């Protein structure tokens, strides 16, 4: 069972470069999320989507854009990468939005901005 | 802005010891989820507590939701090296947006 798949797993960028992180889920989940994880700060929500064609800002959206053109895919874009965006990025999905809904996570993308 | 303070941040204990991890907030949550994360992997859900005062047990792990739904604790009895990992609490707000507020995490090391 694939669950949530993130690509790429690792990437090194130079300041100012752009890139797109891809998240794919095969569980027919409505909700999808992008988080970043930094040491000592837990996970912080960047953007999320409550269904195909919808996106919304999370806690730390600046410098990132997202798109959800297909239900199974959620893309995270960095238009002009900055060293402060060096982090581990996690995608997650959930069946619905209730507080008792578990979120299923991918294994992360480790991104370094030089 | 809702915040979830998790403590301690680091814990190194010997096999067989007991430990408790705390998550505290001034905000009310509709539910509180606990996740465990291994190096190089994403978090995996351990349990969800929904009702104030609720207690759930998962083998040697006991989870409790505070009566006012503002805090939670994770107690591990007789810790094993296999319990080593990062433990994260996450609170869900009162609206059904699906958004979770995560604590900073507790890195647990259990030495044999």
Structural class of chain A: mainly beta
Overall average residue pLDDT of chain B = 94
Biggest sheet of chain B, in brief? 6 strands, mixed
The shape of chain A, in one word, is globular
**Tally of DSSP β-strands of chain A:** 11
- Biggest sheet overview of chain A: 7 strands, mixed
| Number of extended strands of chain B | 11
Order of helices and strands of chain A: EEEEEEEEEEE
Oligomeric form: heterodimer
Helix content of chain B: under 10%
Low-confidence spans of chain B: none
Largest protein interface, residues of each chain: A-B, 30 and 28 residues
- Taking all Cα atoms into account, the compactness measure Rg of chain A is 13 Å
User: Whole-Å distance between the termini of chain A?
Assistant: 35 Å
Number of helices of chain A: 0
Q: Give the CA-based shape of chain B.
A: globular
Strand content of chain B: over 45%
Low-confidence stretches of chain A: none
C-alpha Rg of chain B, in Å? 13 Å
- Average pLDDT of chain A works out at 94
Task: Describe what you observe in this structure.
The complex is a heterodimer of chains A (114) and B (112). By secondary structure, chain A is mainly β. Chain A has strands at 4-7, 10-13, 19-25, 31-37, 43-49, 56-57, 64-67, 73-78, 87-94, 104-105, 109-113. Chain B is mainly beta and 112 residues long. In chain B, 0% of the residues lie in helices and 53% in strands. Chain B is globular. Chain B starts with a strand and ends with a strand. Chains A and B meet through strand 4, strand 5, strand 9 and strand 10 of A and strand 5 and strand 9 of B.
């Amino acid at each position: 069972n694939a669950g949530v798949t993130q690509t790429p797993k690792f990437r090194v960028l130079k300041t100012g470069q752009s890139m797109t992180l891809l998240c794919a889920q095969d569980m027919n989940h409505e909700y999808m999320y992008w988080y970043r994880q930094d040491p000592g700060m837990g996970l912080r929500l960047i953007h999320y989507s409550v269904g195909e064609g919808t996106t919304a800002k999370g806690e730390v959206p600046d410098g990132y854009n997202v798109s959800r053109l297909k239900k199974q895919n959620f893309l995270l874009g960095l238009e002009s990468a900055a060293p402060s965006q060096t982090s581990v990025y996690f995608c997650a999905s959930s069946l619905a939005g209730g507080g008792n809904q578990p979120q299923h996570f991918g294994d992360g993308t480790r991104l370094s901005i030089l | 802005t809702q915040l979830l303070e998790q403590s301690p941040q680091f814990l190194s204990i010997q096999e067989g010891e007991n430990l408790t991890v705390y998550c505290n907030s001034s905000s009310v949550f509709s539910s509180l989820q606990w996740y465990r994360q291994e190096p190089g992997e994403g978090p995996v859900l351990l349990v969800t507590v929904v009702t104030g005062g609720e207690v759930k047990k998962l083998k040697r792990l006991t989870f409790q939701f505070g009566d006012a739904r503002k805090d939670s604790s994770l107690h591990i009895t007789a810790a094993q090296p296999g319990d080593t990992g990062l433990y994260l609490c996450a609170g869900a707000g009162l609206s059904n947006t699906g958004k979770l507020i995560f604590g900073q995490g507790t890195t647990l090391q259990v030495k044999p």
